[in-house]
Amino acid sequence: MPNQPKDPFSSAGDVATLSDVVRSLTTGFSVEMTPRDVRKHPGLCRESLAAGTRVYLTFLPRSPFGDTVKAAISLIEQGMRPVPHIAARGVADAAELDGMVGQLADVGVRELLVVAGSIRTPKGTFTDTMQVLRSGVLARHGITRVGVAGHPEGSPDIDTDALATALREKNAFATEAGCEMYLLTQFCFDARPIVAWERRIRAAGNWLPIHIGLPGLTSPKRLLKFGLACGIGPSLKVLRKQTGGVLSLATTSAYYPDQTLFGLASAVRNHQDSLISGVHFFPFGATALTADWAKQIADGQFQIDDRQGRLAVTA
Length: 315
Fold this sequence. Notes:
alpha/beta, two-stranded antiparallel ribbon, single chain, globular, TIM Barrel, 10 strands
């Protein structure tokens, strides 16, 4: 009888090895904040995060770009590495893009996340990520490390074929331009669609490393609201199951992404070709609480509940 492939979610085997993978995925974790978050809580990142942590600055359509520049300056002063979002559909033309990236580079930004942006009517000539990448503006200002969006559960704005085409183009661009590129996904509550997606795109030729978006330790009710807006419908069913139903969604104070992290680590351990290389947290306002939990996990201060597929912080 031929050998059967390993179940990527089986935790049988060396638990210490699984623990090592969990720590590896969370070491160097990054977080998402809005420019408003940074302004309202001066010093929060210095107090909550290790020096050099990547802090991604969310693009907000109605927020002046100057707020992003000020937030980047504040983060650098706190010892962080700001990674502002550039939303293609929110940029009028190459001249405006040049001005925006130039401002960020001048204050010390060296990395960007470039996305199409969930804007129904583009502001100008840019409509997708590749147009921004091919403009040459980023390289001209010394931006050689770039994150682009990954969509394990699809996107409400782009169909499946278009997503596949875009991913092929990004891989080709990274090779041709010598750009240090990676995929950063939307947040999910279930490891299974993430792992299945990673396998599909790797089989189709993707070689870009993948950072997986995880929700932070905010309330399930708040996560449900953002999850619906982000188009992660399949995972929302898992959220309801993990929290014990609709009533618990409304009353539980904080969601912990330990089950998703456990599933990711199990899959990475059992499939060494996996391109999943790290995690990124969307705290939705709970930055300090999320950072504290993630640091404990990265430091190995947890126990593995092999039966339940969970991680429990011990400190």
